[in-house]
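User: My instructor asked us to take a sequence, write out its structure as tokens, and then describe one feature of it. I'm not sure where to start. Here is the sequence I was given:
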Amino acid sequence: QVQLVESGGGLVQAGGSLRLSCAASGRTFSSYAMGWSRQAPGKEREFVAAITWSAGATYYADSVKGRFTISRDNAKNMVYLQMNSLMPAESAVYYCSTGISTAALVQGRGNSWGQGTQVTVSA
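Assistant: Let's start with the prediction itself. The structure tokens for your sequence are:
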């Protein structure tokens, strides 16, 4: 199983940017689709973005399209989420996950999950 560690969260003003990173361990990293999800206090976890194993295709929640970009570097076992034009409502814990497919990740059916990184967007 792949182990995941997120980093890059923090406090940012509305309209600002953050880049999240997810470091993966395990030889099979490049075999998995990867995704990012987020969970705000009192709310269910929601899908944010996903990328195929080859990075040939990406998928985004409608709310983040045009502002967030997911990418991966299989040689470094890393996944990234560049977040621009952040809004206070996007304050949440952001999680990285693996999946057998991007469709599974869109549905919240990840295989392995990291511990999350907190993103706080101030007004």
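For the description part of your assignment, you could build on this observation: Residues 99 and 110 are 5 Å apart (CA to CA). Try explaining in your own words what that tells you about the chain.
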